[in-house]
Amino acid sequence: LRNGKIDQFRAEFLELHPYDQARIFEELEESLRQEIYMYVSPEEMADVMEHVDDEEVEPYFSEMDPRFASDVFAEMSSDDAVDIMNQLDKDKVASFLTIMEQEDAQEIKDLLHYEEKTAGSIMTTEYVSLKASMKVQEAMNHLRTEAPDAETIYYTYVVDEDKRLVGVISLRDLIISEPEWTIEEAMSDRVVSVSVAKDQEEIAQMMRDYDFLALPVVDFQDHLLGIITVDDIMDVMDEEASDDYSKLAAISDVDGPNDNAFTSAKKRLPWLIILLFLGSLTASLISQFEEQLNQVAILAIFIPLIAGMAGNTGTQALAVAVRGIATGEIRKQGKVRMMFREASTGLITGVVCGLIIMGIVYVWQGNFFLGVLVGISIMSALIVATIAGSFVPLIMDRLNIDPAVASGPFITTINDLISILIYFGMASAFMNLLV
Amino acid sequence: LRNGKIDQFRAEFLELHPYDQARIFEELEESLRQEIYMYVSPEEMADVMEHVDDEEVEPYFSEMDPRFASDVFAEMSSDDAVDIMNQLDKDKVASFLTIMEQEDAQEIKDLLHYEEKTAGSIMTTEYVSLKASMKVQEAMNHLRTEAPDAETIYYTYVVDEDKRLVGVISLRDLIISEPEWTIEEAMSDRVVSVSVAKDQEEIAQMMRDYDFLALPVVDFQDHLLGIITVDDIMDVMDEEASDDYSKLAAISDVDGPNDNAFTSAKKRLPWLIILLFLGSLTASLISQFEEQLNQVAILAIFIPLIAGMAGNTGTQALAVAVRGIATGEIRKQGKVRMMFREASTGLITGVVCGLIIMGIVYVWQGNFFLGVLVGISIMSALIVATIAGSFVPLIMDRLNIDPAVASGPFITTINDLISILIYFGMASAFMNLLV
User: Among candidates A102, A96, A121, A103, which has minimal Cα distance to A111?
Assistant: First the structure.
């Protein structure tokens, strides 16, 4: 395909959607990529780069001619350019910015200042705004000329003389308005905006709940700074979901299709080693009860069952709490109500599971007291574990730590400890009934 | 506010965004809700109902006058009406449909046929389509009149005389085209469509990757049946993420802010009881090694540590595999490569953790052979558990079972079993070195 036939390749390649171009591009060897850099314009390359995963884009920009690379950045949406630059090392970014034209460079520099995961870092500055005093007819003409460079023209924000946000008008409303009206008459002044420092997860919630296609971003004096479009928010939703999910499983990052075994191991080992030390604590706890174990070795049989059940129910309570915090549901209802509900849920599940296992153990081992001991241990362990599973993330949220860090395995390991303490505590108290 | 002052309440309430109206509405007591039903139009009520959680909407429709309720359904977007009807019981739905006007009822009936979670069930039939032979000017006029009833007019799909999908034109392109062109000249014929039976998760991936605001849904002969808009897809993304997340924690449904303790317990108990039986299997496995435990009671100390580590690493591998299957990444790369990578990752993490724990046990217990035993057990358990964590979901995917069902606690419990077998197996083999 691409041995010589440049025109044909260009024609076919550029017909594709940039997402597909990016997939093909990633499959190529470096020498072929170099040819592509020669035969496509920076603008065309920018489209491709916007559809490559941010974390994998670094080598491509390193192998490009720096002049070409900085042209590509200049042609990209400013928000996408910034996302990629956040992945590159600082010296390289600085050198691209110096080659770039003043105006483009300034735009990107401004965006690079905003903290990651805030409105400022995901907004784009390529938007069209209208003045309140314009006529509808004028506004349509303005949109027609600006359309090719803007991220969206379906929602246009209206500003006053001081660039303060005063309204919003959809293209839909614009085309059904009379041409001689002013924008002020045609627009809606109930415009919802977000502050530049707002967290991206909250913005995603808002856009989903209110079905917005775009949201204006303002500073503290209500000056319009940029807009966030729904396509960026879909990426945010995916990122946040994947984040919560990874943390529940205690891995730093679940998305790594191109990782090799070493990279995967590097992502998982830190958690495993921490858990290994926590697990050693459990072991040393049990060793305190060596005497009881020597007397009634059968006690050991139920250790994994009790610890496991406490871990399972803790993970369930944790997942509900973390999700509730993430969606803001818990703040609405109050934490006390949530805790009370979890305690009651723990009580119900504990009693049910406790009775079942009591029956199983009694029938299986023919030892009534052992059945009661295991049953009551499971019951207490489930109650405590359920409360711990919901309490720990709530406290972390209070301390402004991301509650998802209290991930599944941590809660599980903590609940292992608690449940074994309960089990052996009871066993030693009623030793005389067991022997 | 609402004791008598109906006009004022109407004015203030209806100024709000329907999402906020829904939040207020949900807080009211039944008597106040009844007043609202009297003072708002079915159309206004439809907007509110579209923003209430589908699972909580049932009581409201039951308490409404059936005539009013069916008018509300008729005014809703057909896709939202169907989502809600899927939550109501069949007799009630049938009675609403009989009161409704023929045309609206037919539209909803058609949609009710589609299987849940497919394109058919999330698409809306309120769209505008254009004929390829229309002039741009005509098309603009057509859009102006149809705009109020359509879900979106930003992307309009173009059909031929047989209602077959032949192209797409964005409002953006429409306003920059010359009025006397035909749609056929102005449109793009590279239109991406989805079949009515396609899974909603795949559609969400597509819309995110290609940054679409809308997608046309077609039948097997390419006839345009409906469209899917980005706001529906955001709900799908949330639902799917929450689904994967719930399953990783083994709860049927994580979203239940208004659940009481009994409902919560009912969602969690089935899983806990199944896990209780699986846990009893582990217990009965250990009981096979009672003799060894009687000889070396200290063996029991390390049971939770070994089982716990196997569970943790299994959960990590599981999360990566489930996510990889969900995003389609694994299908791209091939399962064999994935399995090979997981096995290598298991080997690396196993060796590292095994060596660490060997050191800890040796220093702590002063028993070299015990250290070696625990170390080698952890090493083998991690390798096997990592492979199991990724293998089980792959097999389930092959058997067309949703791999997320192999949720965290299941893998954990299975890995408990395997790791304990390894541990006691080795302990009995080398008993003479330990005693």
Answer: A121
